[in-house]
């Protein structure tokens, strides 16, 4: 019973920037993100034939628990500070207007859309992947443009990432062999440890100054895990140079909290939902109305064909 998990925001952002905004509804409103996402779903369903598909959702794009650990987390993407929240994300208004349409169309089609307050889609994906592995209900394909989710790759459990670096029709299939070839790490967990050491400016994570991707991978090859690297630092292990030891020590405050930010949650309290690929539209009348209102005929037809409705 194969499971496909969509990092929905990653995919509709990619569609928005990759599909011309000349694709418009009868009202003149751009619907390029809506149509691009539907075309992506149709392609994935046709090519991979998953038994189950979940559109994982960012109910919280910048969770408080991550900001409390590292205040710079995604801080550069805050468009507006709002008291009592971690801020409103900077999103093009033309895209922001399409997100509710995407949610409505997914509901009418019958694709489960799952988000949890206080968590990102990454955490929903981490939890669903963990459940599938524990229950033996894989394999699992994660579709995302976010490298953070490489940490979930697990060959033995049948978990891989389809990373559309060259487009959704020619994704980079990320398994443990690919992680070793591209990043010099042996597992998904090692990738998370490497990302912690390296940092990620796009997410506001400083990393350990002076420790880049290659050095991080070399240290992980030498010691196996971040915890063992830090143990070597603390015990004066001679495998670390004096410079490496000093840099790791100076970054101690960051390294104590970074794993909470970098690693996806695997125990999110998910709502009940049906992940099965729909055998028919969940709400045919609503789907027809949305198709007409927003000019989605060709994209919706591709979804119908992909799911075997037409």
UniProtKB/TrEMBL annotation:
> Which terms in the Gene Ontology molecular function aspect does this entry carry?
exonuclease activity
Q: Does the keyword Nuclease apply?
A: yes
Q: Where is the 5'-3' exonuclease domain?
A: 1-279
Q: Which UniProt keywords apply?
A: DNA-binding, Exonuclease, Hydrolase, Nuclease
What SMART domains does the database record attribute to this sequence?
A: 53EXOc, HhH2
Q: Does the keyword Hydrolase apply?
A: yes
- The source's superkingdom equals Bacteria
InterPro entries tied to this protein: 5-3_exonucl_a-hlix_arch_N (IPR020046), 5-3_exonuclease (IPR002421), 5-3_exonuclease_C_sf (IPR036279), DNA_polI_H3TH (IPR020045), FEN (IPR038969), HhH2 (IPR008918), PIN-like_dom_sf (IPR029060)
By its UniProt entry, which CDD domains does this protein fall under?
Answer: H3TH_53EXO, PIN_53EXO
| Function recorded in the entry | 5'-3' exonuclease acting preferentially on double-stranded DNA.
Q: What is this protein called?
A: 5'-3' exonuclease
């Amino acid at each position: 019973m194969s499971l496909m998990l969509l990092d929905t925001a990653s995919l509709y952002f990619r569609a928005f920037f990759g599909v011309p905004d000349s694709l418009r509804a009868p009202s003149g409103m751009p619907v390029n993100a809506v149509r691009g996402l539907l075309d992506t779903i149709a392609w994935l369903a046709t090519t991979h034939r998953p038994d189950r598909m979940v559109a994982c959702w960012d109910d919280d794009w910048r969770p408080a628990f991550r900001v409390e650990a590292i205040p710079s987390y995604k801080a550069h993407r805050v468009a507006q500070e709002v008291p009592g929240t971690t801020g409103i994300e900077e999103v093009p208004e033309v895209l922001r207007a399409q997100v509710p349409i995407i949610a409505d169309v997914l509901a009418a089609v019958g694709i489960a859309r799952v988000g949890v307050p206080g968590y990102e889609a990454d955490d929903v994906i981490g939890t669903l992947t963990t459940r599938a592995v524990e229950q033996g209900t894989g394999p699992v394909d994660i579709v995302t443009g976010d490298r953070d989710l490489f940490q979930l790759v697990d060959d033995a459990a049948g978990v891989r990432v389809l990373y559309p670096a060259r487009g959704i029709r020619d994704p980079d299939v990320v398994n443990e062999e690919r992680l070793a070839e591209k990043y010099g790490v042996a597992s998904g967990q090692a990738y998370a440890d490497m990302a912690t050491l390296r940092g990620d400016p796009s997410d506001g994570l400083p990393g350990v100054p002076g420790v880049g991707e290659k050095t991080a991978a070399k240290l992980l090859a030498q010691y196996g895990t971040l915890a063992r690297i830090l143990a070597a630092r603390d015990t004066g292990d001679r495998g670390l140079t004096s410079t490496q030891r000093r840099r790791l020590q100076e970054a101690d405050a960051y390294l104590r909290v970074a794993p909470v930010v970098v690693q996806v949650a695997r125990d999110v309290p998910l709502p009940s939902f049906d992940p099965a690929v729909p055998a028919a539209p969940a709400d045919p009348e609503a789907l027809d109305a949305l198709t007409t209102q927003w000019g989605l005929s060709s994209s919706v037809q591709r979804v119908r064909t992909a799911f075997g409705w037409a």
